[in-house]
Amino acid sequence: MRDLAALREQVAGWEQLTRQVGDALDLLELAAAEEDEETLALIAAEAEETERQIDQRELQLALSGSHDPSDAILAIHAGEGGTEAQDWVQMMLRMYLRWAERRGFKTTITDQTPGEEAGIKSVTVEVEGEYAYGYLRGEKGNHRLVRLSPFDASNRRHTSFAQVEVLPLVDDDIAIDIHPNDIRMDVFLSGGAGGQNVQKNATAVRLTHLPTGIVVSCQNERSQTQNREMAMRVLRSRLYEVELQKQEEQEAALRGAYVKAGFGSRIRNYVLQPYQMVKDERTGYETGNTAAVLDGEIDPFIDAWLKMQVGGG
Question: What is the pTM for the complete model shown?
């Protein structure tokens, strides 16, 4: 009944927009015939508002996937570039945390591996909020940074990569068969970067799913039991994603368009030197305000990708 009510609301919204456009066209025809400048100005203002509503409705169409309303698991991994790439992961973590904060989403860092010299090797964040997965799923892929490296004494330009992984946080009512004998659990001391907040007891948990080799760790919570429960949530989501990828590959193979699953090619370039530009390779959307993007203003990139999914980009 909840799904039916949501669908009815969507249909009613589109029908109302259709009536608005029809009424505006009729009024425009009369105003143009009478050369009524005041009415024409009002129609122009109404047209802008209608266009804004249509844009919002198009985004809702793109957020119609079965898991789009779910919370999300966001993981960022350092790629090529050494210390530079690890610093890039830290920059990206801040970018996504700021974005989530603006949207009113709750974020929890469940696992983090610091770099040897600076930055972060990998980090996993749980993002809680309405349609968190739907908005973030287009961020999956390789993100490329070009800048003058602060770690290079010669101040040369460096290119580094970070890989973003996005998973839906799977509900407990979705059946995921995990046999206890298929899991190996290791415990270790948890602590922050630089050895901060190191605990005397081994509360951090690392789970290895032996059949697939998937490794998940969590060190955010204070008790070993809490960390194991959170790690199991992440493991269930990863296993569910593996099954979804298998289904997509089989369907693509039947269509004769098989593409191997993975992070794929580069999706976005962040260039800080020799010029300032962030450009999405898929949609073509770009901006010269790199500081704003790195401060979390990535909604235009997300919206452009979502619109492209329904042919509106």
Answer: 0.72
CA 130/CA 7 separation, integer angstroms: 17
184 and 168 inside one domain: no
Q: How far apart are CA 209 and CA 217, in angstroms?
A: 11
Residue 131 placed within a domain = yes
Q: Do 132 and 259 form a contact (C-beta atoms < 8 A)?
A: no
CATH code, domain carrying 114: 3.30.70.1660
What is the C-alpha separation between 230 and 237, in angstroms, rounded? 11
**Strand 157-168 to strand 141-148: parallel, antiparallel, or no bridges (unpaired)?**
antiparallel
- The answer to whether residue 67 is domain-embedded is no
Q: Tell which of 210, 227, 254 closes a domain.
A: 254
Same domain, 287 and 165: yes
What secondary structure does DSSP assign to 6-43, as a single string? HHHHHHHHHHHHHHHHHHHHHHHHHHHHHT-HHHHHHH
Neighbours of 67 (CB within 10 A): 20
Asked whether 31 and 40 are in contact (CB, 8 A), the reply is yes
3-state percent helix, strand, coil for the chain, nearest multiple of 5: 45, 25, 30
| Residue 249 domain boundaries | 180-254
Q: What is the pLDDT along the chain (313 residues), one digit of tens a residue?
A: 767 886 788 788 888 889 989 988 988 888 888 888 888 888 888 888 888 888 777 777 788 887 888 899 999 999 988 899 999 999 999 999 999 999 999 999 998 988 888 899 999 999 999 899 999 999 999 999 999 988 887 878 899 999 999 998 876 656 677 888 898 998 887 665 434 444 456 788 989 999 999 999 888 777 888 888 888 888 988 888 888 777 767 666 655 544 433 345 689 999 998 899 999 999 999 999 999 999 999 999 999 999 888 764 4
**Residue type at 135?**
Y
φ, ψ at 171 (rounded to 5°): -70, 155
Domain presence at residue 43:
yes
